[in-house]
Specification:
This protein is an alpha/beta fold. The protein is about 40% helix and about 10% strand. α1 links the parallel β1 and β2 (about 35-40). α10 (about 260-275) crosses α12 and α10 (about 260-275) crosses α13 (about 310-315).
């Protein structure tokens, strides 16, 4: 069983602290057996003061990190900018206990911990959009991307602000066990299995009037039309907007231009079909709207770095194959 260790530091934010337990703790196999063992620890095994008006007790000290397959560090308060100490006493030593092959995950501003420890040097990373400029000034050796919800750097992963920790933990379940289990976890936790766009949609900007038109109905319509080519003019016409207005509003609402959003939805549909059906690659490409197997291979290699056959082999495992039912065409 994969062992997840969550490190609660003084001033930890309770919401983010609960995310790994809720997401990984909900993941179960077809036989109902848990797929992860989740344990929360502090540096000394004692109670931890949170950022709220209560403290928490934990059952483990930093010695629990020795058995970590994945370490998750939620954000914590540590004073104003000029007084911040992102490696409080004992933390560097605790990080040294983590096995060399373990995954290390930060949520929100806990990315500062990884950067201060040198774990993000030369790597891509993200953090809360409101801290991104300060983070980049503080750690110029890190490749900061403030527009995404999370960055999967392989062994080191960083999530953006607050609820992006949910997105990243679901991503890890998906990476470990495939979309079927990750989607079930999302349904049980009543959260979307995959959020569109990135942090750009949450950055401060004027809020449109309630009466303003939205691209949401068109996005929903497009998900049912992914099997065929969709032009920008057709999308704008469906929304009842000019192309220019549609593009601007679409990006404001999703954080992505329409073409990039469509490609992402096509890739996600292709991944789901590769995991859950026996369709040949050329038919998967057709269902996902890529047209040809070659186009599917190119896009899948760009997004996840492997060809369709390798992806299917890695994520199908022992799951029995299914043919695409009526619901397959509507899968995002």
């Amino acid at each position: 069983m994969h062992r997840v260790r969550v490190l609660a530091l003084e001033g930890v934010y309770p919401f983010e602290l609960s995310i790994p337990v809720r997401i990984f703790g909900t993941a179960a196999g077809r036989d109902g057996e848990p797929l992860y063992e989740v344990a929360t620890c502090s540096l000394d095994g004692g109670p931890v003061t949170t950022s709220a008006d209560f403290s928490i007790s934990v059952a483990h000290g930093s010695e629990a990190l020795r058995s970590a397959d994945t370490l998750v560090i939620p954000p914590f308060t540590c004073g104003p900018d000029e007084e911040r100490d992102w490696l409080p006493d004992g933390l560097r030593e605790a990080l040294a206990l983590v096995p060399a092959d373990a995954r290390i995950v930060s949520i929100c501003t806990a990315s500062y911990v990884l950067a201060a420890a040198g774990l993000l040097d030369g790597r891509p990373a993200t953090t809360h959009w409101n801290e991104a400029e300060h983070f980049q000034r503080s750690f110029p050796q890190v490749q900061v991307d403030a527009n995404v919800l999370f960055v999967d750097g392989g062994q080191i992963l960083t999530a953006a602000g607050v609820a992006a920790g949910i997105d990243l933990c679901l991503h890890l379940v998906r990476r470990d066990h495939g979309s079927e289990i990750a989607n079930r976890v999302a349904r049980l936790c009543v959260v979307p299995p995959w959020r569109e766009g990135g942090q750009a949609q949450y950055i401060d900007r004027p809020i449109p009037e309630q009466s303003a038109a939205t691209t949401a109905p068109t996005r929903s319509w497009a998900l049912h039309e992914l099997h065929r080519p969709l032009t920008l003019a057709e999308l704008a016409d469906n929304a009842g907007m000019s192309v220019r207005t549609f593009c601007r509003r679409f990006r404001d609402e999703t954080g992505l231009p329409p073409g990039q959003w469509l490609t992402r939805q096509r890739v996600e549909r292709a991944r789901r079909l590769l995991e859950t059906t026996d369709l040949p690659v050329d038919q998967v490409a057709a269902h996902a709207g890529f047209g040809t197997a070659a186009a599917l291979r190119q896009h899948l290699a760009t997004v996840i770095g492997v060809p369709p056959s390798a992806y299917r082999q890695a994520f199908r495992g022992s799951r029995p194959p299914r043919s695409p039912g009526p619901e397959a065409a509507a899968l995002p």
